[in-house]
Each structure stands twice: as C-alpha cells, then as structure tokens.
Design brief:
two-stranded parallel sheet; 453 residues; globular; 11 strands; Rossmann fold
Length: 453
C-alpha cells in the first residue's frame, strides 16, 4: 500500500475547526457510547460547525424534539450547557433505522441530507457478539451499503468515515492498516440474510464466518469490503478502534454508559459479583479510551480532505508498543467472560503507523484540543477515574468514595466481631458437650473457610 501524502509538506491548509466551520455533518450511532462523545467533541472544539444531523430510531409516542431535549440533557453535554448552550441548537434528529432499506429515512429528510451534508461519520452498528448472523449482516453490512448509497447522492460530500473495528481481520496475527480480502462476497451475504430464514442461516453460521470468532466481526469485515468496493466513487476512510473503554480525559474522566465488554466486568469486580474470571495471563488485550477514539475519528475526517492520493486510508486506533503500557495495567483489572474469550485469549499486534501520523499531522493550533496523549496517560489515575465512572454513571451510587471507605471499615470490624463470637460459642458448645478433638478441629476448619478468617 502506497504511503499517504499530504498536499502540503509543511502544514495542512486548514486547522480542524476551520475545516468544520460551516460544514453540516451526518452522524449515525450518535446516541451510542462513542457517538455521543464524537458529537460533543465536534460542538465543543469546532464552535463554527454547521448543523449536526443524527440518525435516531423512531420511538413511539415520543416526538423528535422531546428526544433531542432528552439527548442534550445528558451529563456529557454539561460543559456545553454551562458555557455555550446555543451550540446545542445545531443538533437535529433524523428519524430512521439502519436495519431498514433506505435507512428508513423519509423522502423529505433524505433530500435535506443530500443537499446539506458534507461530512458523514458512520458509527452505528450492532455490537452484540452473539447476534444471529442474519441480523448482524442486515444491520452492519447492509446498513453500511445503504449509508454509502445515500452518501454518494450528497451534493457537497467531502469525506465519509466508516467506524469499523481493529478486530475485523482476526485471522491475522499482525494486522496492518489496509483492507484485507473479505471472508465472503458481501452482496451474496446480504442476499442470503434477506431471503433465507434465520434458522437456515444459523445452521451454517460456523461455516459462513470461517475463521472469524463471531457474527459481529464477520459482518464488520464484510462492511469494510463494501467501503473498499466504492472507494473510487467515495472519499472514504476506514477507522478501526480496538476495545473501547472509559474516557481518559474529556468531557468527563472515566465516563462510560453501558455494561458491555470490559466495563461491565470491571463493575462486576468492583461490586464483588465476579470473584473468578476467565483470562489468559499471557495475553494483552488492546484497550483504547473513548475520547481518544473520538479525536481520531475527527482527525481522520479532516486529514482525508488533504490527501493527494485517492487510496482508501485505514487507521488502526490501537495502543501498540507503549511503555509504561496502559494496556498491561488494565489487564490486571479487566477480565473476560465467554463472549470476550477470543479477545482475551488471542493476542493481536497492530500496525499503527498511519494512526500515529494522524497526530503528527495536526496543525500546531489543534494540538491542545486533538492530540491523543496516550503516552501521557497515568494508567493508575485512568483506572481510578474509570472506577469512579462505573460507580457514578452505571451503578448510580450517590455516596462518595470516602463514605464507602468508612462503611467498609465499619463492616470489617463487624465481620471480625461476628467471627470471634461464633467461634467462641462453638468452642463453648464443643467443650460443654465433650465433642471429640478431631471433630472440633474439623468444625473450626469449616468456620475459617466460611468466614475467611
């Protein structure tokens, strides 16, 4: 793959805020974890951006304006509400569904998007690893095809960013920043998902997905093939994050909004629900903070417009060869359940040359707002913020860490008191009724195990 070159060997022609000034953006997956952070970052760091249109599924009985108000009240938009509330007026809902042909968008909204949108960020996907293969293909593969068809009709289109996954080509131990041969013909797979019943497809799922570990990765690999097939007619970018975890810095350190993947397991560990986990201690799972992912998506969209080459840029948004490694520290905390077994039992190395060059290509005035800062992240501070985020945003705890520490200390002494009391009562009982010494030893052994003395 040829090296991607900038049109200006010194500095890009525009900064990121200058590029986005006056541009209308269409974002799918805007209500998802990464999508919300992308939208907030665009509004915050590109204050002169035009309108942001967000594809959102129809909710019966709830008007789009009500959903938009609910969306902007999210904790992630707090700094905008406090400092620049008028910027939230740039957000607009487009009702539709990626599972439907034509994305379920009305003709009026479709015409609006065709005439106004110049940047598309396609981040919507079903991320369930255990989805039936038919559903995964309809949502992730056909949905991407429908997005491409819409984008090609946009009169002002400058860039189309497809958010894939770094694990879309897991049959390779070393994953380069390039498009690989697809596991199957995407047109055939879409046709099969549309015309065969789910039972028929499920029966042959293992044969269909081949070396892919699950239906999600299989469908995302097919979607990359869709983008690749249209690269001559579409100014596209493929952006591949690894396993996305809580934010490192902005807009809120440690923010996460779902129990999927490692965050849910982290919550289970913190609450004591998960005491034993399935993990290979020799495998390093690749995690990337959500805000770094969002910055990378935005930078990649900006940089695509400065490339002389018409090749399809691919960026592996991964942590690689960084010491001290955030990944190695997280490995001690984030463990696996069966749905994540492939990722925690099979290590993959990634080429990140192009991804790292995104940061190096920044205009000096963009560095403060958009640099990745991966090497500057204190891993222990990140984990403390992540733990606090789990408690605050997922478990909805209202007590502070100090209050919990005091309560834990009290419970510890109560535990010791109960252990001693029960032990003394049993000793008294055994002594009073002449219980054999061997039986008494067995009883006390069981007590120690129960109370973990």
């Amino acid at each position: 793959m040829s090296r991607l070159t900038l049109s200006d060997d010194t500095l890009p022609a525009t900064t990121i805020p200058e590029f986005y000034a006056g541009q209308d953006v269409f974002v799918t997956g805007a209500t998802g974890f990464v999508g919300k952070i992308v939208v907030e970052k665009l509004l915050w760091s590109c204050p002169r951006i035009g309108n942001i249109y967000m594809l959102v599924r129809h909710r019966r009985g709830v008007k789009p304006k009500e959903r938009l108000k609910e969306f902007t009240q999210h904790v992630l938009f707090e700094r905008l509400r406090k400092n620049r509330p008028d910027d939230l007026e740039k957000l607009n809902i487009i009702e539709g569904d990626q599972m439907e042909l034509g994305l379920g968008i009305s003709s009026d909204d479709r015409q609006l998007l065709k005439k106004r949108v110049s940047v598309v960020i396609h981040a919507a996907a079903s991320v369930r690893f255990d989805d039936p293969v038919s559903k995964a293909i309809i949502c992730n593969t056909r949905g991407t095809r429908e997005m491409v068809h819409l984008a090609m009709e946009m009169e002002k289109l400058k860039v189309f960013v497809y958010v894939s996954t770094a694990y879309s080509n897991t049959e390779h131990a070393y994953i380069e920043e390039k498009v690989y041969d697809p596991p199957a013909d995407w047109r055939t797979m879409i046709s099969a998902a549309e015309n065969l019943d789910s039972f028929q497809l499920d029966v042959v799922t293992k044969k269909l997905i081949g070396m892919k570990p699950n239906s999600y990765i299989f469908s995302k690999a097919l979607a990359e093939a869709v983008i690749n097939n249209y690269k001559d007619r579409l100014p596209a970018v493929i952006f591949r994050p690894s396993v996305v975890v809580a934010t490192a810095e902005e807009p809120i350190p440690g923010y996460s909004d779902n129990f999927n993947g490692p965050v849910g397991l982290e919550a289970a560990n913190f609450t004591g629900i998960a005491l034993v986990n399935l993990v290979d201690p020799d495998v390093v799972t690749n995690y990337i903070p959500a805000d770094i992912t969002a910055r990378g998506i935005i930078i990649s969209s900006w940089r695509r417009t400065h490339l002389l080459s018409q090749l399809l840029p691919v960026y592996n948004c991964c942590v690689q060869d960084i010491t001290p490694s955030l990944v190695k520290v997280q490995r001690k905390f984030f463990n696996a359940i069966l749905t994540l077994k492939f990722f925690t039992h099979n290590e993959r190395n990634f080429s990140v040359t192009s991804f790292n060059e995104l940061e190096k290509s920044l205009h000096p005035s963009d560095v403060e707002d958009f640099e990745f800062k991966i090497t500057k992240i204190d891993p222990y501070e990140f984990l403390r913020n992540s733990a606090k985020g789990v408690r605050t945003f997922l478990l909805k705890e209202t007590t502070t860490l100090e209050q919990n520490a005091r309560l834990q200390k009290i419970l510890y002494y109560v535990h010791i008191f109960l252990c001693l009391t029960v032990s003394w009562l049993l000793y008294w009982f055994c002594s009073s009724y002449s219980i054999p010494q061997r039986l008494m030893s067995l009883v006390f052994f069981v007590i120690r195990k129960i109370f973990i003395i």
